[in-house]
Write a structure and sequence with these properties.
This protein has 432 residues and is α/β, with parallel strands linked by helices. The protein has two domains: 1-324, ANL, N-terminal domain (Rossmann fold), CATH 3.40.50; 331-426, ANL, C-terminal domain (GMP Synthetase, Chain A, domain 3). 29% of the residues lie in helices and 24% in strands. The protein is built from eleven helices and 20 strands. The protein has helices at 14-35, 37-42, 64-69, 102-118, 138-150, 162-172, 181-193, 222-231, 341-349, 384-395, 406-413; strands spanning 82-89, 95-101, 126-129, 153-156, 176-179, 205-208, 234-241, 246-250, 257-258, 264-269, 282-288, 299-305, 320-321, 326-327, 332-334, 337-339, 354-363, 369-377, 400-403, 424-426. The strands form five sheets. The protein has an eight-stranded mixed β-sheet with strand order 4-3-5-6-7-8-9-13, with helices on both faces. The protein has a four-stranded antiparallel β-sheet with strand order 10-11-12-14. Helix 7 (181-193) links the parallel strand 5 and strand 6. Helix 4 crosses helix 5 (138-150), helix 7 runs parallel beside helix 8 (222-231) and helix 9 packs across helix 10 (384-395). The radius of gyration is 22 Å and the shape is globular. The two termini are 42 Å apart. The mean pLDDT is 91.
Length: 432
């Protein structure tokens, strides 16, 4: 299939879109069975012509442990056709490579072009990219390729300093910024400190990566509300992974991330791998279509979310993914209550006196986890007891709270070793 052949498929009736997906899925399974050493082994009894979106559950899952154990066996092309390599740490810390062909990068550019267009960007825009393109980081490259494909202008300032971004905004006057929401909030506060109102700049759209903007009910979290208020701009959430090369990005309706129907099939499954109905939360499973270098089938992302059942007001009929509720491996059990770090982040963001925080979870016993919340407080009168009571009222659990100097907390959260803020450390010897 030529990339972009079904550019308008998201607006097509579901039965028409399903026919296209069925055909692309069969071609994908056939390709995997013929060219991928890993899938030649696991698909030996599968008849590709019998596969459809409705019967995709008959195919085996793939997870990150498979990628770690047999990384090279996922390569489906000669090494001479690989043009870009991403390295990411696996679930055990063992590095895994994800390799892309020229066609895969073209697919990546098309994916991001469609995503940017959905949230209202056009060739008339100038986008400031605050995510790095180096260190084998695929997102920075993806956004650059997508902005180019859209015909817009990209400013690749990467992980520049606050003064550097401030200078770029003043001199180059971008109309959109791509970045991590917590960073965009700090950038807006920095501009204010320099006497510039972010809402008075040309920036009208914030494309947010790495952190959710909305809660389970699709309402803006405090972080999302803060950046929209500070910048006087609309904030759009995106979700993706380097393995699946597929983005779910919000449209102008800001009601969940649209799947590009011609690029992937998405499922939500329970702990036993059974499909869940729209609206029910479970693990996100993605089968990326039209991939050459390292094709995958039913890849278990480890992320927990849900599909939104109602039609989108933007007119697209493609599936929409809700916000990421948490990582399966990060689920905590505290005195019988199931909890994800994201719920704690949301609760902490609602406490005005808390300026920074991170969470450490340890094994208490076989039935419960010990959660310690390290916080920095804006107000010296804000006690550990006050924060504990606020968290208990919101979460129905009583974590241990430690108040520390802001610089101490910031050094832990914003480490040069990580691309994103480090707010959760799991020291448990087991997982639920």
């Amino acid at each position: 299939m030529k990339i972009g052949s079904y550019r308008d498929i998201e607006f097509c009736p579901p039965e028409e879109a399903h026919k296209v997906q069925d055909q692309l899925l069969r071609e994908h399974v056939t390709y995997c069975a013929l060219h991928s050493p890993f899938y030649r082994d696991v698909l030996n009894d599968v008849v590709a012509d019998d596969i459809s979106v409705e019967t995709i559950g008959s195919l085996p899952f793939t997870d990150k442990a498979d990628l770690e154990a047999r990384n090279d066996d996922f390569l489906a092309v000669p090494s001479s056709r690989i043009v870009d390599i991403v390295q990411s740490s696996g679930t055990t810390g063992k590095p895994t490579r994800v390799m892309y062909t020229e066609s895969d990068l073209e697919r990546l550019a098309y994916n991001e072009e469609q995503s940017f267009a959905a949230c209202g960007l056009s060739a008339d825009d100038t986008a400031l990219l605050t995510c790095t393109i180096d260190r084998c980081f695929i997102a920075g490259l993806a956004y650059f390729l997508g902005i180019r494909a859209l015909g817009a202008a990209a400013i690749r300032n990467g992980h520049g300093s606050m003064p550097s971004h401030f200078s770029v905004i003043q001199r180059m006057r971008p109309t959109a910024i791509v970045g991590v929401p917590s960073f965009l909030r700090k950038l807006g506060e920095f501009l204010r400190g320099e006497g510039v109102d972010p809402a008075e700049t040309p920036v009208k759209r914030l494309v947010c990566i790495g952190e959710p903007l909305r809660d389970r009910d699709m309402n803006l979290l405090k972080l999302g509300s803060d950046i929209e208020r500070i910048w006087g701009a609309k904030a759009f959430s995106t979700y993706a992974s380097s393995e699946t090369i597929t983005t779910f990005c919000e449209c102008t309706a800001q009601r969940g991330g649209h799947l590009h129907t011609d690029l992937a099939v998405v499922e939500i499954v329970d702990d036993k791998g059974n499909p869940l109905p729209d609206g029910d939360a479970g693990e996100v499973v993605v089968t990326p279509l039209v991939v050459e270098g390292m094709p995958l089938i039913r890849f278990k992302t480890g992320d927990v979310s849900f599909l939104l059942p109602e039609k989108c007001t933007c007119g697209r009929l493609s599936p929409r993914l809700g916000p990421i509720i948490g990582r399966k491996k990060q689920m905590m059990k505290v005195r019988g209550t199931t909890l994800y770090p994201q719920a704690m982040y949301s609760a902490l963001d609602e406490i005005a006196e808390v300026s920074e925080y991170y969470i450490i979870v340890d094994s208490e016993d076989d039935l419960s986890d010990q959660v310690t919340v390290h916080v920095a407080a804006r107000d010296a009168s804000c006690s550990e007891d006050k924060i504990t009571e606020a968290l208990q009222a919101r979460l129905r659990v009583k974590p241990h709270v430690v108040v520390e100097p802001e610089e101490t907390v910031r050094q832990y959260v914003y480490t040069p070793k990580s691309r994103k803020p480090v707010r959760f450390t799991d020291n448990r010897s087991h997982s639920w």
